[in-house]
Amino acid sequence: MDKNSKTSHAGTVSVLFVCAGNTCRSVMAEALTRRRFGDAVRATSAGLRPQRPEDAKNAIETLKAEFNLDASGHIPRNVRDVDLESFDCVVAMDKTVAKDLKAITKRTIIMWQIEDPWGDDLYEYKQCALRIMQQVSRLPFGSQSGA
Question: Which of 26, 45, 46, 122 has its CA 20 to 30 A from that of 34?
């Protein structure tokens, strides 16, 4: 993985997904982006106020049960510990997150409007993941080619 450049090798783009606690939406967006784009996209996630790793349990269970994706090693991290400029694309999971991000960076933020399922049941997590999957399918990375 790259540390200072925007791309780790030709054709690879990088995207950072940001939500409040880095335990629900951004975790699912990271995993679903990796599934969709494979090695063509370097996806990662962070939160404005990261929560405990065990707080990601419902998102991790949803990814496993619904998409057969293993995110069990996820550790929430603070967006302030991430070099925002090193990503080609930064996605805020809702308008509140976008507003908070704009207070810490001047870079362009892509804003999605995905409701936070925090505290809801697994059905709501699944619905959230399906909405995220729709948004991921609209990311402009499909036309990228490794050259």
Answer: 122
- How many residues comprise the chain? 147
- The Cα–Cα gap between 116 and 105 comes to 23
- Angle at which helices 122-137 and 57-67 cross, to 10°: 70
How far from chain centre, in Å, is Cα 69? 14
| Cβ neighbours, 10 Å, residue 28 | 35
Per-residue pLDDT of the chain in tens (147 residues, 90 and over written 9): 333 334 444 568 999 999 999 999 999 999 999 999 998 999 999 999 999 999 999 999 999 999 999 999 999 999 999 999 999 999 999 999 999 999 999 889 999 999 999 887 899 999 999 999 999 999 877 544 333
